[in-house]
Specification:
GMP Synthetase, Chain A, domain 3; 5-stranded antiparallel β-sheet; SH3 type barrels; 3-stranded mixed β-sheet; alpha+beta; 2 domains; 26% helix; 39% strand; single chain; 3 helices
């Protein structure tokens, strides 16, 4: 089993037990040190205390894995940034009323507020958009 799959299998139950999701896991090298980046998400916006608690639990499990060997590694646990694309229905539900910019597979651009999100479509202002027709969707940063 590849190392990233082994790590994912080991930490996913911990993350899910806290009501969160394992969004992405990557392993990169910086010289002799491996950097393990774990991106977690939830149905609500995560705060620093929640990320810290999950990090401690993940760290304990990771250190016991033989796949990482005896080499040094850095563990980074974070939540998705504002620039991360919205790719799953839960991403849309989490960001209700936020401003989004969508590039459709047709090339058309749609910008508006996120409304009702089902498993197959999302309402952006008054336009119903099918997830299948979305090429890329990201939140727009707003300053109040």
């Amino acid at each position: 089993m590849p190392l990233n799959e082994e790590i994912s299998a080991a930490i996913r139950p911990i993350i899910e037990a806290t009501g969160n999701y394992l969004e992405e896991l990557s392993i990169t090298s910086a010289g002799k040190v491996k950097i393990l980046t774990v991106i977690i998400d939830s149905d609500t916006h995560l705060n620093l205390d929640q990320v810290t608690a999950v990090t401690k639990e993940i760290s304990e499990v990771i250190e016991a894995l033989e796949g990482l060997g005896d080499g040094a590694f850095t563990l980074e646990v974070t939540s998705p940034g504002l620039d991360r694309p919205l790719t799953k229905p839960r991403h849309w539900r989490k960001n209700l009323d936020r401003l989004v910019k969508i590039i459709m597979t047709s090339g058309q651009e749609v910008t508006g507020r996120i409304g009702e999100a089902t498993e197959t479509t999302v309402l952006v202002d008054s336009q119903k958009v099918s997830y299948e027709d979305i090429k890329r969707a990201v939140l727009e940063v707003e300053f109040k």
